[in-house]
Amino acid sequence: MQHHFIKHTFLLGILFILATAYPVAAQSPGNDEQNHEILGDSVKYGFLPALGYSSDIGFAGGGIMGRYHYKDGFTPYFGKIQAAVIVTTRGLFSLSLYTDHMQTFGQEFRSLNKFSTGRQLETPWFGLRNNSSFDLDLWDEGYYFYESFFLMHEYRGRKRIWNSGNSAGRYLDAMYINDIRGIWPKLGSGNSFFAEQDVPNSDGSWVWLTGLGLHWENRDNEIAPTTGNTVVLDLLVAPGVIANHQMWWTSLVATQYYTRKIIFPVTLALRGAYMQAGGDVPFYAYPELGGEFTMRGYAQGRFRDDAILFYTAELRTWLFKYPDLNFRLGGHVFVDGGRTYQSGDVLPSFFENHKRTFGSGAAMSLFTDEFLVRADLGFSDEISRLYLGIGYTF
Description:
- The chain is 7% helix and 55% strand.
- It is mostly beta strands and 394 residues long.
- The protein has a single domain (4-390), classed as membrane protein fhac: a member of the omp85/tpsb transporter family (Porin), CATH 2.40.160.50.
- It has a 16-stranded antiparallel β-barrel with strand order 2-3-4-5-6-7-8-9-10-11-12-15-16-17-18-19.
- The protein is globular and about 60 Å long.
- The two termini are 15 Å apart.
């Protein structure tokens, strides 16, 4: 699922690592094997101070404390535990914990956990529908924001059910997904669009989703892919037991990468995604468009509805490379598009009234080829937005 507060916590806040780089960034297969020969069965600890910026949350500061367990035969690590604290100039304060273990109770079952909680002074709300209104003066006055407290935990268990058995690295994982989250707004005395709309469950609620999924992987590199593809399918339901809402959620995300040499090697990165929710959907669980990871140039969560379709085409290249310094500098251009739908209107209006954004950016790799610092400047028909973060958006 898309969750703007999770993205803030895990992805938007981190721009530049100031401390020594531990070998925790994803490596190419060759680098992984070399690292494991050196590390054997070992544990590393690290503290990474961090700075960041996004037009949606302002400047961010904080740090990440991590424990990394390496073992021969496991890439990029055998297990990881990571805790983070993020504070921003626009009122976001969050605590998060992320764990990733390649085995669970000695079984070949990968377990990933994400926990996040915090407060956000400027949580955006523009209402529902693909044609929801926007006024720049009201935006500047803070009319589209409300204060909130959030809490979430997501678990993904992945079991390999097929692999190519060769160096191509193709595999298919079955997934069990458990997702619990809630948000509790605090409506002050000032005017806000959220308060005026009398949004259902505006006093707060939480939802528990559980279900299955599939993850197909065929990329040459998870951090900076140049060839291959991925497909991820989620099928979730909220039974309404020990929670406030009965609903369902489905999503399908696919990516494809091609590389050709045109003076420099140029990678065409393509992505398409469809997400839909139904039933008693709380306001914070609707699929959303807008922000760093869907449509760059629109405000975070600018469009919400029962279903969304979005897609991206991005051209990436490296312009300067200094292998001895483990440094690369590159650029990219992109076009994002998509729209939202009401549940009964998907097919009749599938190709109508799509939104578009475009922009350009730069990427720099430090320490290893897979450790990327990225900047994107996106333009929409309403505003422009600047995003700085770690790694490509897909």
